[in-house]
Amino acid sequence: MQHMPASYSDNRRDKRTLLIGGLLIIAVGVYFISKSIFFEDADAIPASVSTDTSREAEVSLIAPDVLLKKIQNGDSVALVDVRSQEAYTLEHIAHALSLPIGSLQNFSPAKDEMTVIIFSENDPEVFTAAKNIMSEKSFAYYFLKGGFEAWKSMSAPTVSIGDPDSFVDQSKITYLSAEEFKKLLAQNTPALFILDVQAEDNFKKRHLVGSANIPLDQLEKRIGEVPAGRHIVVYGENDLASFQGGVRLSDLGIYSARTLTGGKYLSPLSGLPLEP
What we know:
It is built from eleven helices and 14 strands. By secondary structure, it is an alpha/beta fold. It folds into two domains: 51-160, Rhodanese-like domain (Oxidized Rhodanese, domain 1), CATH 3.40.250; 167-275, Rhodanese-like domain (Oxidized Rhodanese, domain 1), CATH 3.40.250.
């Protein structure tokens, strides 16, 4: 029997060792590459995301699209907005009640009314406070999943303050000049409804003859007093107030209203009928 030289055997063993070592290195490399691709690095997840996910898991949630369907179907829903007053004023869901955290403890819905808490994803402290207060309530309630930001992201309807620099808000307005308005009056346009959104004190000082006064800050609450089927002309103390009145009507589902523009419609120089 012929024996292989010791040096030959050693070479084969060394090659085998190198091969195994190389395979182990490749396996380790594949593992870490796969981990980086298929598994999220916990340190890479923003704290706000993980915190938001965990905190929303602690309450009953209603998805924005489900809430929208309930509102459209006329279901009895109490929308309680616990965001700051400033954020609410800039934009909110129609007919939502602005209720600061300090007053939330005293809130109770009407009978058979579903309560939905609207919060901001960017304000975890207010969310936590609202969650703690609501946990003591005996009635059923939900938090809006994803907060107001989620409602906005699906382009659901909102009521905005009315920003003249906003293309979206401008698209809601149909302007009417004082001269065009005079023609409507001269033609005795049937079913004409003139809406004055001035503050009550300003309305008493001067307004267009035949106009109905619903102050801008009450318009959402009193929208049922505006006859949607008539020719509506809206105006306020100035062009900004008039613009915001027109935007508010559009946000509340009245799209045919026309907004007086020109800024001098309440001046005796306008030639429009004024009183007193």
